[in-house]
Every structure is written in structure tokens, then in C-alpha cells.
Design a protein that fits this description.
6 strands; Undecaprenyl pyrophosphate synthetase; binds farnesyl diphosphate; alpha/beta; six-stranded parallel sheet; 8 helices; about 240 residues
Length: about 240
Amino acid sequence: MNEKQSNLILPTHVGIIMDGNGRWAKKRGLPRYVGHTYGAQTFRKITRYISSKGVKVLTLYAFSTENWKRPPEEVGAIMKIFRQYLTDALTDFRDDEIKLVFIGDKSAFDSHMIELINETEEISKNRKGMLLNIAMNYGGRNEILYAVKNLCADVKAGIIQPNDITDKDIQSRLYTANIPDPDLIIRTGGEHRLSNFLLYQSAYSEFYSTETLWPDFNASDFDKAIEEYNQRNRRFGGV
Ligand code: FPP
């Protein structure tokens, strides 16, 4: 870390929309799944780097509720990569004390994947380092919908009165309950949209977009995002 970096304020919670794997492969005349394979290597390297910097929470958008619409061969390849990299990452991430949690609707995955997810969470649950949330079959609207359904059930059961519902009652029913909202959301691949990522939690997040495609995203790209984050004037609706 250079001197300039060491004086910067670090966001507590960083979210990343890992985009551009397909384009990265296409530029090289390779099938899209090769881009995902390289993207998975970036996932491993950058997670360790961000943890080494001292970020407390990292949330990575790995697979959205809409990604099932991709051709079955691509979805199959992505699932295979997830299995492989989650297994490998467990060893690396153990040395870094990284705790893994999966956010999203796990029920849509096959039994082997669900087993791997549960095992990964169980093995890492007592680690003291960075919390890594992997958003898989995650959609912000779905997450809010589940929270609303849960609240309605509590209202019906007489546990809570509609007039007493607060923002906290919604927050505590999200996948990210008890986790601070993201301070910074980075999107690779040049698009400027949230694509259903952390919709409720991102109300006051700083958004940073880079043209770098996800497989090429590296430590210096992350440092650039932190430098720009330090130029922002966060007012949270105040003056
Ligand atoms: C976006 O690129 C990436 C994905 C839809 C999912 C795959 C992510 C990985 C393989 C990263 C590794 C994560 C883990 C948890 C191992 P895209 O296909 O949308 O790219 P494009 O916009 O160029 O088409």
C-alpha cells in the first residue's frame, strides 16, 4: 500500500457487481464460459486483496434471479465454476479468516450445490476476519418481497401492528440483517445500473463504475475506486 492509499478512509461495506466476463471472452474469440473461469480467478484474488486492506464486509453479485434466462450451457458452466471455486476458495479464505455467507434464494440450486453452500457457511462461521456475502440467485426485489410477506405474516399473527412498522422491521427481514448498508458499490464492465442488486440497502451508497471487464479487475483498479470514494461528499440527505 502506498502512502496516498494509507491515508484514505476505507468503506466498511463494499458491494461489487462483477460484470463483463462474456465480453472479455468474446474479445479474445473464446466461448463465454472461459470468461467466467477467468472471472472466478479474479473473484479469489480480489477478495483476498480487499480483505487484506481491512474492509469489514464485501458483497459480491455472482448470480441474479434473472441469470437463469441465459442459455442452459452457460448456466451449467457457471454452476460448475461455482462448485470448483467455492471448494478451492475455502482453503485460501481459511488463511485469511474470511467468513462466507450466501445471500439469495438457495432453494433453486441442485442438492449438491446446496450442500456445498451449507458446508461452506458452517466451516467458516467462526472466522474473525472479513464477512464475504456471495449473492447467488439473488434479486433485490425478491428480497424485499420476502421481507414484506414475513411482515404480513407477523401482522396477521398479531405480533406487530401495521402502524408500528418501522424501517428497522424491514431491514431485519432482509438477507443482510445486522450488516451495515454498503458504503460503496463498484460495477465493472462499464454499465451504470444496479441490476436489482441490494436495492433497499443501497439508498445512500456511492456508486462507482469502471470500464474494466471483471476478469481484468485488479488491486490497482480497486485502489482507484477507493481514491474516488474519498472524493465524494456523503450527505445522506442532509446538507
Ligand atoms: C457477469 O458477466 C458474470 C456473471 C453473470 C456470473 C459469473 C461470475 C463469476 C464466474 C465470478 C466468480 C464468482 C464466484 C462466486 C466463483 P457477464 O456474463 O454478464 O458479462 P457480459 O456483460 O460481458 O456478457
